[in-house]
Amino acid sequence: DADLVIRPFQQKGVVVSLREFTNTAFNQHLGMQSIERFTLSDPDLDGVKNELTPGDITAVTVWQAALNVPGQIIPADAKVSRAIILGERTFSRIGCATCHVPALELESPVFSEPSPFNPPGNLQPRHVPRPFTFDLTAAGPLPRLERTGEGRVVVRAFTDLKRHDLCDAELQHFCNERVEQSDVGTRFFITRKLWDAGSSAPYGHRGDLTTLTEAIHFHGGEARQSRDAFFALAEEERAEIVELLKSLQVLPEGTPALVVDEDLRPVDKAAIVARIGRARRRAM
Fold first, then answer.
1. pLDDT value at position 65?
2. Taking the complete model, does pTM exceed 0.70, yes or no?
3. CA-to-CA distance for 28 and 6, rounded, in angstroms?
4. pLDDT tens digit string along 229-281?
5. Residue 247 in contact with residue 158, Cβ under 8 Å?
6. Phi and psi torsions of 227, nearest 5°
7. Terminus-to-terminus CA distance in the chain, angstroms?
8. For residue 158, how many C-alpha atoms fall within 13 Å in the half-sphere facing its CB?
9. Could you give the CA distance from residue 133 to residue 116 in angstroms, rounded to a whole number?
10. DSSP state, 96?
């Protein structure tokens, strides 16, 4: 947006904070209105007054912020692990990582609620004596986000958190919207986070695409070059990219690491990369 504030939530990228997302979702999907968002005690006239307190919204917001994050499953099978590593390289080489950026960094690991970015209609820092804060890398169920030695946080979400037009004269699948949302054109959608791609089928903003290859097929517009490069690959290379995407999954709560094998045991990914490198050099 013109104000350069990142709005990472909803498919159009129009919601700035988890609290704004939560207040909106309770009203639109559950028919429950929060005191902080609505001035009337019973705005939907369902006979239930003051349905959600600021404490209720804070609790749900903090719970979402503390959820265990997706990770990667790299099976012990040498053929599959090799496909995943090679698929990751090809994914970047053909341009997919330009928008589906594998990792972004946060300057601070501290989550604060209420957020200083909460818009009007949502609890703001000036409304409370002090915000509730916690370290995203140290609190909440495992697995958690990674913290660098410099105190920054690595988020491996595979997105640039920007909006893109994926339609062109031939590929119109993602241009079926009819109503603008928060002044965002109907053709534009925020880059989908892929860090749970192996767990989140069906695909597309309508959930009408069954396979990962089908979802890639309909990438037109700004993604057309990368899409065409994918289908120009040999069948084996396309399959390797799909194996990469399948490996990105929501891990069970309590999983001890972000990269694990099929039995949820921690995996040294760097060692796998090194092993594949040695094998390729011997083959040359």
1. 96
2. yes
3. 23
4. 999 999 999 999 999 999 999 999 999 999 999 999 999 999 999 988 887 77
5. no
6. -60, -45
7. 49
8. 22
9. 12
10. G
Q: How many helices (H) and strands (E) does the chain have?
A: 7, 10
Contacts 24+ apart (CB under 8 A), 200-203: 200/250
114 within 8 A of 22, measured Cβ to Cβ = no
> Average per-residue pLDDT in the chain?
94
Residue that has been written with the tokens 């000036």 in this structure: 126
CB 10 within 8 A of CB 111: no
Strands 71-73, 259-260: pairing kind: parallel
pLDDT: which is higher, 77 or 277: 77
Nearby residues of 247 by Cβ (< 8 Å), 6 or more positions away: 72, 73, 74, 84, 198
Does position 56 have pLDDT exceeding 90, yes or no? yes
23 vs 20, 35, 48, 192, 260, CA distance in Å?
5, 10, 17, 22, 35
Q: Report d(CA 271, CA 255) in Å as an integer.
A: 20
| DSSP conformational letter for 247 | H
CB atoms within 10 A of CB 242: 20
Burial class (CB in 10 A: 0-12, 13-18, 19+), 88: buried
- The three-state secondary structure class of 49 is coil
